[in-house]
Amino acid sequence: MSMLLIKNEKIKEEVYQEVLNNGLKVYYYPKLGFTKKYAVFSTNHGSCDNEFRSLNNGEIIKLPDGIAHFLEHKLFEDPERDFFEKFSDLGADVNAFTSFNQTSYLFSTTENFTECLLELVNLVMEPFFTHENVEKEKGIIAQEIQMYQDSPNWKVFFNLLNALYINHPIKIDIAGTVDSIQMINKENLDLAYKLFYNPESMVLVLVGDIDFKQVINELNSEFMKHSFAKLNYDKVKVIEPQEINMARIEEKMSTSYPIFNIGIKDINVNLTGKETVEKDLITNIILDMLFSRSSEFYQNLYTKGLIDDHFGAYYTGKTDYGHTIIYGISEEPDSVYKMIIELMKDPLKYLTLDSFERAKKKQIGEFLMGLNSIEYIANNFTDLYFQDFLLIDYLDLLEKINFDNIIERFKENFVEERTSISLILPE
Amino acid sequence: MGIPCTGIHLKTNALEGVVKLTQNKIKENLGKGINVSFIYTDKFKSNLLSFFFINTLNREDVTYNALLPMVLSRGSKKYNNFIALERELERLYGANFDYDVYKVGEKQIIKFTLEWADSKYTNSESFDEMAIEVLFDIIFNPLLKDGLLLEEYVEQEKANLKKKINNRINDKRSYAISRCIEEMCKSEKFGIYSLGYEEDLEFIDNHKLTDYYKNMVLNTPIEMVYVGNHKNLKIDKFIPDEIKYRENVNEIPRESIKEKSLHRNHIVERLKVNQGKLVLGLLTGIPYEDESFEALTLGNIILGGSPNSKLFREVREKNSLAYYANSMLFKHKSIIIIDSGVDFKNMQKALDLINEQIKSIKEADFSEKDIELAKKEIITSLRSVEDSNHSITSFEFDNIITSNFESIEDRIKKINNIKKDEIVSAFNKVSLDTIYVLTREGEEDVDVTD
To answer: Could you check whether A4-235 and A248-426 share the same CATH topology?
Structure first.
């Protein structure tokens, strides 16, 4: 095996890549002098992966909503050991999370790094589902779902996704619903596990002060004990129309003021690698230019009392979807909405070269500050890796963005017809 | 690059600051009650300077203290509105200015921070001084008209603060915790809500706030903490002379500690929610200066401070009643808050289970393994402090306000020496004081008895 070293002289950072005997890619991002070491083992399957087609007979499998997250909980089950205890015993803190496109298992520790890493491999590679332990988890996850149901910020966000998308599974709550998780059983968990967890879909990222060579040897012998199932299935591609599902969605909850999320559906999708990341960066720079605290728009709405410091905007997207979200709390959300629509019709007085240069500098500074944190590095490394891009190239990509990119992307993306508003109103 | 996600468990912070970072630290006194700690390290790609006003938490001042940083950060003499201020910060490679108002025990802290990228990585001249100047301009050179804070800014921020106060209800978990504390410490300073009260706002105007501000900068203890790699930062020149040479500095009293609960509080509140919240407030009577406080800390972790804890195992894993069931020790006030999100019909069952777990610690029903795991939990948190400039700052600040001069290693030694009987005896001082239940209309009255 040949270890690959990728360096970025400018930010004085580097990353090593190694491919294990079973084909799994492992990246090591050194942070010398840090006491904490961090590992994230991820698959690029999350809540959006709910339909697969057999390559043998074309049969379609539809998995229950929330199964990726349920699976994440259940991988902590083991016939012999309690993983939480095991990791604590090694001085480590273990956790996991599920997002739309990804499930990750991670730990951080100041000691016993290699042992922890092998335990993490064990945790992910040895599923143990029984009828009893699956049923038991339903009560816990039902309470987790109910907790999110009481969060107006969570609700306003998912309601917006429901307004923006017609078919895309991104509109389904990551954890599913109290009803949908009742359909989860040992059999469909086994199947989902086989579909989601294999070396081609996975990556292992290590950050900290680590002896990488030694770790690789240990990993190779550890993985000899585990096998991956190879199922001949393909994810069913979602056909998502360019139109939005609805222009407006409202719900009442016990809050004090209306909470809004305004969304713009992106139609420039199905890009890969550098293009996706570049589009993401450009769109976020535009949003900074238009809506950050340094903008005339923010100043204007703030002094009118229409928004407070909860106001903000961001863009997020993956290969098959993308959306902008402008969020805040306001007693007059419709006035805010109207002003945003007006701004979209005549943006040129705000999209200036000066605001572009400031927003770009800000992004550079924020990225550099992010590199202070091993968690930031590991999580963003993984997220970008699944988009076929290396975190270490991020700053170079950012610096190449020019003003023409901004104007072009604005025209393409900021369109009233693809805008929705989601509101949570006080009872 | 942020992604919404749901996790396997909610991480609780087992520790509030307790470590002394001795290496590469210089402490400088700049005036009466004005100190700065410089902690030097080249681990980070940025510099972080934090500025703290330390006030006594009290009913008269709480709303003023909450409002003040909101008005100050609207604009200074040099950067007189968001546009001027934020654009300057952007030019300084997205230097990040922030403020916070919160309570630590019975102290109300106003904190201003500025974090800026190290010019080594930005292909630019050093801009440290320019960045620091922005921070101090906001704090000490507010925008005044006829000697007063701008009426327009004060009135707008009053409206914003009113919203912030009322927004407390949005996060039901933290709402329930803060309501429990409010009821539990009703007659004490700790029961005061750290963002103040809506009814105070109508009595505050720009005249009163200006007087309050002038008085505060002259009398309130000031602490600053710098974490970064620049050894020659000059802070001194940014402090105005009349503040540097001030004569009187307020004494900030230590929190009062209640020993035993005198009567049980039962509070039931109804809102439109899908999930009930059960919050228990317990008195410990053990001040943080006391020898047995570390044993209490360990006992609390065994009870509900990690996924190995009794609450996690019993309430969540064995009985599937909740996604989270945690126990938090509020160091400066010596109280424990236990909280869990449970279905309405399971309230009584959850309460019984929680009470059983508290009892089991008092009766020494836990293993050496449990102790060992709890020790490791604390030690790992202590050792990780040095990996983040923000956690270094909070640890340092906590040492300052608790006058603690222990090193990390000394503290680890102390924790490692704690024996089971010490934990048991510390926990036998713990008594249940308040039970707070958040439920919804139409649910039966929850008869929470213990």
So the answer is: yes
User: Which among B85, B124, B170 is the top mutation candidate for probing chain A, defined by the most A β-carbons within 10 Å of its own β-carbon?
Assistant: B170
The domain A4-235 is classified under which CATH number: 3.10.100.10, 3.40.50.10860, 3.40.120.10, 3.30.830.10? 3.30.830.10
Sketch the domain layout of chain A as residue ranges. 4-235, 248-426
Q: Which two tokens stand for residue B260?
A: 């035993």
A100 touching chain B per CB within 8 A:
yes
What residue of B is the nearest CA neighbor of A258? B167
| Domain shared by B130 and B167, yes or no | yes
Contact A262, A419 (CB under 8 A): yes
Chain B contacts in chain A segment 190-249 (CB below 8 A):
none
Q: Under a CB-based contact definition with an 8 Å cutoff, are residues A186 and A111 in contact?
A: no
ipTM of predicted complex: 0.88
- Architecture, CATH, for domain A248-426: 2-Layer Sandwich (3.30)
What is the pLDDT confidence band of residue B293, given thresholds at 50, 70 and 90?
very high
Is residue B237 domain-shared with residue B291, that is, in the same domain?
no
Contact A369 B115 (CB under 8 A): yes
Question: Could you give the C-alpha distances from B21 to A199, B24, B42, B393, B410, in angstroms and in order?
Answer: 43, 8, 15, 10, 11
Q: What is the mean pLDDT of residues A143-169?
A: 96
A409-427 per-position pLDDT tens digit: 999 999 999 999 999 999 8
B149 and B188 share one domain: yes
Q: What is the CATH number of the domain that holds B86?
A: 3.30.830.10
Residues of A serving a catalytic function are 72
Tens of pLDDT along A198-226?
Answer: 988 999 999 999 999 999 999 999 999 99
User: pLDDT class for B448, splitting at 50, 70, 90?
Assistant: low
Phi, psi of A255 (to 5 degrees): -130, 170
Listed in sequence order, the residues at least 6 apart from A338 whose beta carbon sits closer than 8 Å to its beta carbon are: none
Q: Do B169 and B236 fall within a single domain? A: yes
State pLDDT tens for residues A231-260. 889 999 999 999 999 999 999 999 999 999
**Contact status of B384 with chain A (Cβ, < 8 Å):** yes
For residue range B364-384, what is the model confidence (pLDDT) as tens digits? 999 999 999 999 999 999 988
Chain B interface mutation, best of A70, A158, A254, highest count of B Cβ atoms under 10 Å:
A254
Domain count, chain B: 2
Q: Does A76 touch chain B (CB under 8 A)?
A: yes
DSSP, res B312: I
Range of the domain at B284: 265-439
Judge: A150–B90 Cβ closer than 8 Å, yes or no: no
DSSP string, A324-343: EEEEEE-S-HHHHHHHHHHH
Residue of A nearest to B120 (CA): A11
